[in-house]
Amino acid sequence: MLKQLSINNYALINELTIDFSDGLSIITGETGAGKSILLGALGLVLGNRADLSSLKDTSKKCIVEAKVAIANYNLEPFFEEVDLDYETETIIRREILPSGKSRAFVNDTPVTLSVLNELRLKLIDVHSQHQTMQLSDANFQFSILDALAKNTVRIDSYKRGYNQLNTLKKELTVLETQQREANQQYDYNLHLFKELEEAKIQVDEQAELELTLEKLNNIEDIKLNLSEALEVSINEEIGIQNLIYTLENRLSKIAPFSKEYQEISERITSVKIEVDDIIAELENANENVDFNPNEAEEINDRLQLLYNLQKKHYVSSNQELLSVFNDLSDKVTQVESADEVIQQKQEEIRQVSEKLDKVASLISKARINSIPKLTKELQMLLADLGMENARFSIEIKPSKSYFLNGKDELEFLFSANKGGSFGELKKVASGGELSRIMLSVKKVLSANTQLPTIIFDEIDTGVSGEVSNKIAAIMQQMSANMQVIAITHLPQIAAKGNSHYKVFKEEVSGITTTNLKQLSTDERIVEIAEMLSGKNISDSAITHAKELLN
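Below the sequence we write its predicted structure tokens.
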């Protein structure tokens, strides 16, 4: 329930803090006194959009804060879901800065407006006159029926399955679209795939082939230089090998005479071994140098194939060609296995649909079973409100389509007059009748939902006399299950409240401000007497006001 509302620098309000109690609270005041400002401030803290026009003093920020008691409403799971600290007395704060920026907090944790609006639906129902048109909205009509049918858990389960079904259907649509597109390209992709498959491309192949071809193209120079290198190495007169042999022979003879000579001799021996090894490799290389025109042609053809494939696929390496090959393989495989994948997805959809149908059937049966009870309760309440001949015709029609709340279509018709034909509420009910129907609906909902607070903004418009007493009685009954706050112009209703607040304007230093205060017993008598007779309060009005309060 709403325990406290604090407003700073909003519209005509400088600073205001008011405490609310449980039961039925009444708010009265002259037309234009600022009742709509209070509702605007409450709407702001509950997530309505804000703008700079809300600021009384545009150089300061506007702050609206609501304290709500939520211990008995099982909201811990919601707070955990949206990652908020749960407090049995939760503080919701909304700020509008002079820059126009808006901020919202729940228990001092910043929240988005979407989270705030979700929380609002679980805390406070603000009913204004124009909202009677909700009665003609199918979703609202279903919500009435589902409240009596105790369908909350079933619908939550259905929604999870509904979302899963929609996800699967979207996935199937994507698969089918991909298959159509892939089928159109299949033959061409298969040709490209086979071409690359037959090429048997290897990552490092190109570099090795290019090096081999370079060697073959320079075979004469290689042969000439290898021959000359061998001549320089093994010539009997001036060859490096013979000269080193001679050098080694000379040094070996003096090696015993000195450690220094010994080391030089050993080093020359090492050089001789290395030179012998190099000469052996030169001889081997020289013998193996052989120009094979067929080999060169084969390598050249292979490289040209690789170059052509790279150009064809707009790549510059074998590595990239292999990536293209893998992509083509996936596309070809996708087409060849698409039917199996699609059939598997269709089977998933069938299984989810079967489960969803079972839940939808349970929802539908519970709705059908609750219709007699709802019709009876509404007609009894409306009879008390002066609409003795009001009748409802409510019918559930099964549909093959999946809707967000089940597979039903709802016909919710009304007749206000005896023997009259049934029609849509918005077409056959007057404004005053719609207000009374909405009050009856809210009464039914209050007994079947866990909503902490409901606020009625002049739901009594267009009624008077005994009907107003009945409206007050219904509000009192509702207040046994929830906090009810009623903004009214009728003294009969104002007198039935457990608490009574007055909205009024006053001038302070030439500036008009709106205020709200809780009335004492004596102040209530004066306020109700004024509602009965106007500013010039008569003794009979005072007496009548006392009678109403008693």
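Residues 175-338 form one domain.
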